[in-house]
Amino acid sequence: MNQGFSALPPLNALKVFEAVTRHLNFRLAAEELGVTQGAVAQQIRGLEASLELKLFDRLPRTLALTSAGAGYAVSIRQAFELIDEATRTLRPEPNRLTLSVTPTFASRWMLPRLPDFTAAWPDIDLRVLASERLVQFHHEGVDLAVRYGRPPFGAGLDARMLFSQTVLAVVSPTLLAELGDPAEINHCLRYALLHDGHHLWPAFLSFIFPHESLHHQHHLRFNQTALALEAAIGGQGIALTSPHFVQNDVASGRLVVAFGTQMTIDAGWYLVWPKRPREPATVQAVRDWLLTQVHG
Asked: Where is the HTH lysR-type domain (predicted)?
């Protein structure tokens, strides 16, 4: 006679276990699940007791999965993903899509194109999340992401390049007229260098002036390219960026190219998405639309 799943631990304990494996911290797992830290610790102790196995090593400031715990975590996560996939299939939401992009990509590339997107796909309810980190697709409900870097981006993920990274320097025409052509070293030293999170100025200066050792004194530092570009538009200095992020600014005259050459980087902007047995039509549609925007 079929005994069902009598050997299964309580599903709530497995849900707590899965959350703890991602955070390796009882407090953070508790915050995600909306319960107390003590309740999380109690569920993990109970699970370990029922399995008669130690799943975590308790370290001073964190947790570490034991070898048994690590293997169990992979299987449990796959099981929850299967349940989630089955539930989504049962209750499909074909016209909803969540796209995760970096803040700079969102403001400098995506937003100007949203009117074209809504015209092409009026039935898709698009949600854009701006985040620097590569999200957990399954747990955060993200269908598609755009990220800067080099593949692979993680196990179980597919990636396709949107565009490779080339770097150019831009400056406001007013500041250029005031301080002179930065391609001349003496003029270049007058400008403030506007840094972003990619820290490309040392490599770029070596690329532009390969036989010189510049000791630049003027620096402004931002954690996002979009902020450095706003500072450049405001006449604060020279910023580095992908040409894809300043097309409108250069066309309108808000910015001009500071040097007549671009530096190529061994990285790019990639579309990233989880591999699925059946890909939702909306994911395919949005991915194809994004690629068409770049490649025509």
From this structure: 9-66
Q: Which amino acid is at 7?
A: A
- Classify domain 93-296 by CATH number: 3.40.190.290
The Cα-based distances of 285 to 116, 279, 280 in angstroms read 14, 10, 9
**What are the domain boundaries of the chain?**
11-90, 93-296
| pTM over 0.85, yes/no | no
Residue 153 CA to residue 98 CA, distance in Å, equals 18
Kindly report, residue by residue over 96-113, the tens digit of the pLDDT: 889 999 999 999 999 999
Rounded Cα gap, residues 238 and 189, in angstroms: 11
Residue 208, CA distances (Å) to 192, 263, 267 in order? 16, 9, 20
Contact 239, 195 (CB under 8 A): no
The token pair at 172 is 């406001």
Kindly tell me the number of DSSP H helices and DSSP E strands found in the chain: 13, 11
Query: 11-90 adopts what CATH topology?
Result: Arc Repressor Mutant, subunit A (1.10.10)
Beta strands in the chain (DSSP E): 56-58, 63-65, 96-101, 125-130, 144-149, 157-171, 193-195, 219-221, 238-241, 256-257, 263-274
Neighbours of 262 (CB within 10 A): 16
**Which residues partner with 149 through β-bridges?**
268
Peptide bond preceding 274 in cis form (omega within 30 of 0): no
Helix (H, G, I), strand (E, B) or coil at 293: helix
Helix axes 111-120, 281-295, angle to 10 degrees: 120
- Gap between the Cα atoms of 238 and 8, Å rounded: 61
The answer to whether 119 and 148 have CB atoms below 8 angstroms apart is: no
CA gap 133, 216 in Å, rounded? 31
The residues near 110 (Cβ < 8 Å, ≥ 6 apart) are 101, 128, 146
Residue-wise pLDDT for 123-176, tens only, equals 888 889 888 876 777 777 888 999 998 888 888 889 999 999 999 999 999 999
